[in-house]
Amino acid sequence: MTEISEAEKRRILRERRQKKFASGGAKSRLEKITGQAGSLMTTESPIGTNVKEATSELHSGNGASASLSRTAEVAKEKPAVIEDISNPSQQGKVDNPSVEIFKQLATNNPDSVNSTPDLFSLLGSMSGVSGVPNEPGLPDLSNFQMSTSVDQDILKYHNYLVDRLKVWSILIKWIFFLLPLAYLITRTEESSSIIPIPESLQFITSKSNFFTVFITFEIVATSIYYQQLMSIEKANKVDTLQNNSMILKVLSFIPADKFPIANIRSLVGLGLQYWDVLYMFLGDLCFMLVILGLAYIF
Amino acid sequence: MEYPVVIAIVFLFITNFLNWTSQYHASIRAKLFSSNTKLTSEYKSKLAKRHEYVLENNSISAQDNYAKWTKNNRAISKLDIELKKLKELISQNDSVNLKLFKRLRLVALTVPFMAIKLYYGKKIVYRLPFDNLFPQIMTLMVSKGFASLALLPLNYYKSGGKLESISGLPICLGIYVWALTSVLKNLEFLVKFIFFTEPVIKPNPLRPTTTTESKDLKIEQDLVGLD
After folding, report:
1. Which of B103, B120, B137 is the last residue of a domain?
2. Per the UniProt record, which residue ranges are transmembrane (chain B) (predicted)?
3. B128 and B110 in a common domain
């Protein structure tokens, strides 16, 4: 009789306890145990409903990583039972909404409500790199270089190579072609006695052919220069104009639909490329004018 | 060579020289103007004194030599205030000097240079005795300046479909100054890169990502190497 009544008593106490947990009564119990009865801090744990299996792992002496991975797997499953931390033998079901936070953290879902999107996924979604189409009006950042330390080092190295190519092209053009040409043009009689030029190549020293020879040389030199530039850009995977031109950088931040001309960025880029070629040609022409004058005067 | 040409070339070289030495202008201005020199030397002496106090304070214990430490600390605070005032005065004087220097540069260099280019822009610097070296339009441009290109359609219409024939290849002052500026700019770029730019080493590429199969680290030997 006593045993039955004791068992009955235990059953009744258990049910009461379960009701208390269901209404959030475990909080007061925990607070009494931990001595935080008057504290305003919440004692709700995001691990609430799925602690049972994880804690059983811990109690059995498995490593922390195993318990964490197990907890992550458990988080994906349906919430089974909640366990009173103070009394592992107790079992109960608590529908704890905060387990959702833990699920999201455990599965590392980037689209989760409470996770903070990182900069790269944000920029990637804006630029369409991740496959998400651009919203109309958003700037196209597909060519925007992320300012990581590696990219900056590569850009610095790339700019160094481009400058070195320019220096070499200027030196070779000026010293090995334009200077001798200016000398041959201005000192035809003297040069023919010093350097006998075969008849087939005499058209080079002819004054009437000077501009044709000059333009032909410029076309060949510019083609070689641009071939080398393309190979450098391909090797470093850097677009020189996109990264160094302030005009294109400013244009990239303005929405394309604000301009009356469609596809203005590519047009401006093309214009800048042509200007680059023209600038090199004018630089060589200026050198010729100065050298011809000096050669004539002296 | 006529004097406007010589003056224009001299102005061009002075302008370029000032651009190349721009980083030294502040120190030269400080030495030239005596008021700032006195203030700068006073600032330096007070800064040295402050440094001595700080070193002394760092060498002694605040607990053991409390009186001396606090005395030094008070002196440091006082010097900080004085240094701040001196710094403000120096920067005020420097800004006044900078304004004066800029005005001087404008009046003595920029305006006369611009006036010579505008007034004597079409003056011939030299005439090369080569006919048909450049096409006719280009010969017209180098002999009369860029404005001739803009007026070319009008002159072509006025002359009844004929371009002005020019003997030889005359180079006018405006075109020569432009050409010389371009050459000096390119030379500056060459010198800067060859002598003042450090070579950049190719950065190491990122380490390749590890394969999904992890290496099984097996202990093959039980031997332990003893020293």
Report:
1. B120
2. 6-22, 104-121, 133-154, 166-184
3. no
CATH number at residue B78: 1.10.287.660
Cβ neighbours of residue A110 closer than 8 Å, sequence gap 6 or more:
A117, A121
CA atoms within 13 A on the CB side of A173: 26
A208-240 residue pLDDT tens: 788 888 999 999 999 999 999 999 989 888 888
CB atoms B134 and A211 under 8 Å? yes
How far does Cα A29 stand from its chain's mean position?
51
pTM to 2 decimal places: 0.60
| A30 inside domain | yes
Mutation to test the B interface, candidates A163, A289, A294, most B Cβ within 10 Å:
A289
Q: Are residues B85 and B171 in the same domain?
A: no
Q: ipTM of the predicted structure?
A: 0.72
pLDDT digits (tens, 9 = 90+) for A86-120: 444 444 444 455 555 555 555 544 444 444 444 44
Which residues 114-173 of A are in CB contact (within 8 Å) with B?
A: 150, 153-154, 156-157, 160, 163-164, 166-167, 170-171
> For the purposes of burial, counting CB atoms within 10 Å of the CB of A158, is it exposed (0-12), middle (13-18) or buried (19 or more)?
buried
Domain, as residue range, for A49: 2-117
Q: Mutate which of B126, B182, B187 to disrupt the A interface (most A C-beta within 10 Å)?
A: B182
